[in-house]
Every structure is written in C-alpha cells, then in structure tokens.
Amino acid sequence: MPIVTSKEMFNKAYEGGYAIGAFNVNNMEIIQGITEAAAEVRSPLILQVSAGARKYAKHVYLMKLIEAAVEDTGLPICVHLDHGADFEICRSCIDGGFTSVMIDGSSRSFEDNIKLTKQVVDYAHDRGVVVEGELGRLEGVEDEVKVSAEDSSYTDPSQVEEFVKRTGVDSLAIAIGTSHGAYKFKPGQKPQLRFDILREVEKRLPGFPIVLHGASSVLPEYVDIVNKYGGNMPGAVGIPEEMLRQAAKMAVCKINIDSDLRLGFTAAVRKHLAENPSHFDPREYLKPARETIKEVVRRKIVSVLGSDNKA
Ligand code: G3H
Ligand code: 13P
Ligand code: ZN
C-alpha cells in the first residue's frame, strides 16, 4: 500500500458517518505508536507534519519514517502538511512527497485567503495532491503563532460555498469553538461547540468534507499523571469526547489531534523517570511513551472517530 491522498478516505468517512484521525508527528516513537495502534484496529490514517515538526526533525527524516511505517503496517496513510502558512512551504511539501497540504489563510482577508488558497490548489492538483483550506480563526497556540480569544472568530456559513467554489479546495477547516493546545476552556466555563454552524455549513456544502482543528480532549487521566509526577498543568481541559463523536457522525471527516499525544507521551516519561530515578537509557522511558501514544490513538479510533475496521 503506497502513501495515499485523503480523497477516498473522506468519501467513505462521509458516507459511513465516521472521521479520520489526523495525528501530528515529530519523531520515530510517535509515528510508531500511532501506526501500530491503527494497524491493530485496521484504521486509515492521516499523519500530519507542522512547520515546527519539519524544523525539529527535518522533512526527509519524517518522510522516511512514514514510508517505513507504511511498509511495516500496510495501512493506507496520507501525509499532510499542517497549517501551511504560505505558498512556499506548500510547494516544498508537495515536491517532497506529501499527498495533502493545508494552506492556512484564515488570518487574511476573505479575498486574500481565496487568492492564496487557489494558488496552492492549482499547484497541488496538477501534481495529484489534495488541499485543505480554512475559514474562521481558532483561538490558541500553534508553533510561533498565538491567536487570542479576541482575535478568534467562528466561521461564517454564508461564505463557505463561495470559498470552496472559487478556490477548488478538497476539504475545509472551520471554527466552531475548538481551539489549539491544552487549555481550551476557562475554569468554570462549560465546554460548548457551535453545532448550529456545523449544521448550516453541512447544509450549504452537501457531501463536502469538513475538518476540525484543536480537537484534543486533553484526557484528564494523563493530566493527573503529569501533575502527580512533578508537572504543573492546572486547568488543562479539552473537547468532550461525545461532542467529537457527534461531529464525526456529521460532515466532519478529519479530526486533528496533537495535544493529547504530547500529554500522553509526557505523562509516561514523567511517571517512568519518577519511579526509576536511576534510569538514563532513553529507550527505557521512550518505550512507555510510545506505548502510551498507542493507547491514546487506539482509544481515539475506537471510541471517538469510529474509523476502526475501515482500512
Ligand atoms: O496546530 C498545531 C499543532 O498542534 C502543531 O503544533 O506547530 O507546535 O508543531 P506545532
Ligand atoms: P490540539 O491542540 O487540540 O491537539 O489540535 C491539534 C491541531 O489542530 C493540529 O492542527
Ligand atoms: Zn490545527
């Protein structure tokens, strides 16, 4: 099975009322944990790489590790650029073997976003690569960009048909109240998503795949482990799993998860080192970290996304 685009995955997910997990990858243990879990439950996968991940690990290392995972598991895997900020990074990833890119023009004006997104779509489609665009701004931290609550905005459903038609994008990320990072709601605030916006978008774009960013649940059991073993993450809270399940049954075909992986990985390393203070072989603490990534991803696929047995 070669590296694939998300086209067929999204068609089947839309029809079947489930979503594909798009997991951020930064190193070998994360890639192995995700792909081993997906292989066990026979789920298709999107592995996504941010600009920060490319800076940290280098494009070629991540690409080769993902190729190894495809060979090892035989799974259909799509390799996606997460939050491409400009045409250049999209071009570089397309030329470097990615099968999908996101061009994130959400901080630009509607017209500038359309212009930039269309430029990427033209380049990508000529080379058999699919493109995700974004309308509406999510609050939170991504690499070097921090979007404050005041600068975030829900997607305006009245803009989506024109955006999709004029750009030719293959999927669309929308803002309905999710946000990046581990602190998605303020203390005492009731977690809420704007399902009314999602329903309206779904009505205006029948059959079209929608993407949710900032969709980690910030699993409390791992926050507790981090806090128990020397960490300090008071008030970390994410999107309730039942809300994500509901979205996956609707037009949402791609659900982005990074923070839950970071949290699980860090919880396992902290616990292992606290319990084994004399250990200094990285394999000793990276092994439970990889195992925890596997547990997190298996749980997401089976209990939230519903993509098990769909590969
Ligand atoms: O949406 C952002 C992802 O969590 C990637 O984060 O830019 O720090 O690699 P990063
Ligand atoms: P989380 O921070 O909720 O995991 O979101 C990740 C994401 O949207 C990557 O693009
Ligand atoms: Zn994102």
Q: Top keywords for this entry?
A:
binds zinc ion; 8-stranded parallel β-barrel; 47% helix; two-stranded antiparallel sheet; binds 1,3-dihydroxyacetonephosphate; 15% strand; alpha/beta; TIM Barrel; 311 residues; binds glyceraldehyde-3-phosphate; 12 helices
Describe the protein's topology.
Layout: H1 7-16, E1 20-24, H2 28-40, E2 45-49, H3 51-57, H4 59-73, E3 77-84, H5 87-95, E4 100-103, H6 110-125, E5 130-135, E6 140-142, E7 145-147, H7 160-167, E8 171-174, H8 195-204, E9 210-212, H9 220-228, H10 241-249, E10 252-257, H11 259-275, H12 282-305
Helix pairs in contact: 2-4, 2-12, 3-4, 5-6, 9-11, 11-12
Care to give the gist of this entry?
This protein is of the alpha/beta class. The protein has a single domain (7-305), classed as Aldolase class I (TIM Barrel, Alpha-Beta Barrel), CATH 3.20.20.70.
The proportion of residues in beta strands is 15-25%
In total, the number of strands is: 10
CATH class: Alpha Beta
CATH architecture assignment name: Alpha-Beta Barrel
Spatial strand order of the main sheet: 1-2-3-4-5-8-9-10
**Average pLDDT across residues?**
96
In the residues, how many domains can be counted?
1
Q: Determine the CATH topology.
A: TIM Barrel
Cα gyration radius (Å): 19 Å
Largest sheet: 8 strands, parallel, barrel
CATH superfamily label:
Aldolase class I
The stretches of 5 or more residues where confidence is low (pLDDT under 50) are none
Order of helices and strands: HEHEHHEHEHEEEHEHEHHEHH
CA(first)-CA(last) distance: 11 Å
Give the overall shape: globular
Give the class from helix and strand content and strand pairing. alpha/beta
Bound molecules: glyceraldehyde-3-phosphate, 1,3-dihydroxyacetonephosphate, zinc ion
State the share of residues found in helices, binned by percent.
Answer: 40-55%
